[in-house]
Amino acid sequence: MSLEHDLESLAIDIAREAGELARTRREAGVAIAATKTALADIVTEADREVEALIRARLTAARPDDGFLGEETGGDSGESGVTWVVDPIDGTVNYAYGIPSYAVSIAAVRGEPTPGEWEALAGVVYTPALGEMFHAARGEGAWLGVNRLSVNPEVGGAGALLATGFGYDPATRPGDIELIGRVMPAVPARDLRRGGSAASDLAFVAAGRLDGYFERGLAPWDLAAGSLLVTEAGGRFGRAEPDGGPRAPLVVAATPAIFDRLAEAAGLA
Ligand code: IPD
Ligand code: CA
After folding, report:
1. CA–centroid distance, residue 159 to ligand 2 (Å)
2. Do 163 and 76 share a domain, yes or no?
3. 88 among the known binding-site residues?
4. Residue range 19-51, pLDDT digits in tens
5. Which residue range is the domain that position 175 belongs to?
6. Tens digits of per-residue pLDDT, 118-162?
7. What phi, psi does 33 have (nearest 5°)?
8. In terms of domains, do 87 and 205 share one?
9. ∠56-61-63 over CA atoms, to 5°?
10. Which ligand 1 atom is the nearest neighbour of the CA of 166?
11. Ligand 1 contact, 219 CB (< 6 A)
12. Running DSSP on this structure, what letter comes out for residue 171?
């Protein structure tokens, strides 16, 4: 078995256990532990507990690897592989009881910085929905045992797109303006705001969305999902066009609309 395949299998096992912990904690009730970058940017006790579990399992299985997690930050390793982890992507959904939240675990080679890393394996698991999206570099993207591919074409009604918003209210006018530019240009039949960037990317891979764009994502939001997209035959792009490193723009889509979406969003 390849290294990529081994990393994928490990990520699947850990995501399942971590997801089960998130789900049972949710059933027991959610406590907001703190706010982070903005009042709307919350962390629950479960986020912390789930990340601790993932980190402990990874350290036990692969002690020489590095780690970068949303809640506990980074540690460089010696193996050249770093795990990039979002314990609960879609924390606001989680806090409100909306089932669209995901455990996102990726293994990357190189610096754990999007654009500089090479993603080796990635898993996006939605415990409340029981869907395990997984990919290994060069070995395809899968939902359970079913191989995924992006939508090959987009019908005359236009593309089904998704987007998201960062937590800082100051970014909202720019986000709304971006939507106003993108929707007529692609064109879009409709727009979703699902609340979990990792799931949005997995949905592009699965053909449930034709494209997705968002500003301001962090490495752990996109590490696993971007590999799902490219392994499913889609295209993924990220750039820092206006706001610098704090407001990177991400575009993921079927090749049928990628260039139009990227151009309208200002990626190129
Ligand atoms: C957030 C979600 C959301 C996206 C935000 C992310 P979190 O992650 O992925 O969909 O729009 O940009 O920060 O805080 O729930 O892990
Ligand atoms: Ca996230």
Report:
1. 25
2. no
3. yes
4. 999 999 998 887 777 888 878 887 888 989 999
5. 159-265
6. 999 999 999 999 999 999 999 999 999 999 999 999 999 999 999
7. -85, -35
8. no
9. 80
10. 12
11. no
12. G
